[in-house]
């Protein structure tokens, strides 16, 4: 009977985790009939989530079946809603509601994160997001439908709730998208709302002046220092009493790790991530490894923890895939390390800012930054071609530093 490795989730960590596991088994000469690697996800595609603020989001999915077939990884359609650590099984629910149980010898949990939606009155009913393709498509359809409404300030206004990375990138993309809907001469208004005192609270002092410059050049307004307390069909209200009339509200209020984490560990951080060992193993469940947005782990020797980003998920996935296969074969695992860190923030028609290091030293701005951002968004974060040698090489965690 073959041994089984299950990978839960086909996000960045899951896809590169599958490649990492397949690479270890290939190098060891292990046949797929002896060790099966199965990737579980609702659809055989990687949603290019960092691009959901752009137009035409329906095109931002990379097919996975040819790639998985090239490296001998199976695909199981469905969503995992339960993990039994004791029985070493996962419960998979298909799109039509059918349930089945899959057993594992080793499990790599890469179930990712989702947008946090607090119990703000009206949020669920009236706010849009760019969290998934389906969400971004709903927003795009809504923006297109606004052209049918009578011209008014509220019709032409978008309130973006959240002043972090997603909020900034969504806001700076909107002036152009709104003019495409209403006409080049339309008076459009974009308002960024945040409970923090400054835009981009996690960016630090170096990139922030460029964000401010971009906002000013595009006429983007800010309402800071007060959280949103209600959302309705005509706008939002903040805790300070500010009312913004807007037919479109976009929620970009931060991420939370998949709820599956609580089924494999009791030690979770404030974002719901599992506290894992350096090799990404769950200390309380030694047959389970965790990678991507669901893992809290140091990425260097300077005390920096990996962020919920595709940049960290891709590399962490490689380590997780390598380790889950190596552990099954009885060979040493690798401690996850990712000392290089870069940030590239899209600022719409202004351009983009690219920085390196945790202190975010500015390297590229304006058009040069935009060129780098477009390269990241259209090339670097996509899976490799379905060529076996190329795909297996992409799963090497140590090549990241070579």
UniProtKB/TrEMBL annotation:
Positions of transmembrane segments: none
Species of the source: Paraburkholderia rhizosphaerae
Pfam families linked to this entry: Pyr_redox_2
GO biological process terms, semicolon-separated: aerobic electron transport chain
Family per similarity comment: Belongs to the NADH dehydrogenase family.
Molecular function (Gene Ontology), one example: NAD(P)H dehydrogenase (quinone) activity
Cofactor(s) needed: FAD
Protein name (database record): NADH dehydrogenase
Annotated FAD/NAD(P)-binding domain residues: 4-317
Gene3D superfamilies: 3.50.50.100
Record keywords: FAD, Flavoprotein, Oxidoreductase
């Amino acid at each position: 009977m073959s041994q089984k490795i299950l990978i839960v989730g086909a996000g960045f960590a899951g896809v590169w985790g599958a490649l990492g596991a397949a690479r270890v088994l290939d190098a060891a000469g292990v046949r797929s009939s002896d060790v099966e690697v199965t990737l579980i996800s609702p659809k055989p595609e990687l949603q290019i989530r960092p691009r959901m603020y752009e137009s035409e989001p329906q095109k931002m999915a990379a097919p996975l079946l040819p790639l998985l077939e090239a490296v001998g990884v199976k695909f199981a359609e469905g969503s995992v809603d339960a993990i039994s650590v004791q029985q070493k099984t996962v419960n998979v629910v298909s799109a039509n509601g059918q349930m089945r149980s899959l057993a594992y010898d080793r499990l790599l949990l890469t179930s990712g994160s989702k947008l946090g939606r607090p119990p703000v009155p009206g949020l669920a009913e009236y706010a849009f997001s760019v969290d998934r393709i389906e969400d971004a498509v709903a927003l795009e359809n809504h923006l297109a439908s606004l052209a049918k409404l009578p011209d008014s300030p509220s019709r032409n206004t978008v309130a973006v709730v959240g002043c972090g990375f997603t909020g900034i990138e969504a806001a700076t993309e909107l002036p152009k998208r709104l003019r495409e809907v209403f006409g080049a001469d339309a008076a459009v208004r974009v308002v960024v709302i945040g409970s923090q005192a400054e835009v981009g609270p996690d960016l630090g002092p170096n990139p922030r002046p460029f964000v401010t410059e971009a906002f000013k050049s595009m006429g983007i307004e800010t309402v800071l220092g007060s959280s949103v307390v209600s959302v309705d069909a005509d706008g939002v209200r903040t805790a300070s009493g500010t009312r913004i009339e807007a037919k479109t509200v976009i929620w970009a209020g931060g991420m939370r790790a998949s709820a599956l984490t609580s089924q494999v560990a009791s030690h979770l951080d404030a974002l719901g991530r599992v506290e894992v060992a350096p090799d990404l193993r769950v200390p309380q469940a030694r047959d389970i490894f965790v990678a991507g947005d669901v893992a809290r782990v140091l990425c260097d020797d300077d005390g920096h923890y990996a962020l919920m980003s595709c940049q960290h998920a891709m590399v962490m996935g490689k380590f997780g895939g390598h380790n889950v296969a190596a552990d099954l074969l009885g060979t040493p695992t690798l401690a996850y390390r990712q000392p290089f860190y870069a940030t590239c923030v899209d600022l719409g028609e202004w351009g983009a800012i690219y920085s390196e290091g945790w202190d975010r030293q500015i390297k590229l701005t304006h058009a040069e930054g935009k060129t780098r951002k477009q390269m990241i968004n259209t090339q670097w974060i996509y899976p490799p071609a379905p060529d076996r040698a190329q795909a297996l090489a992409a799963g090497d965690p140590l090549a990241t530093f070579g």
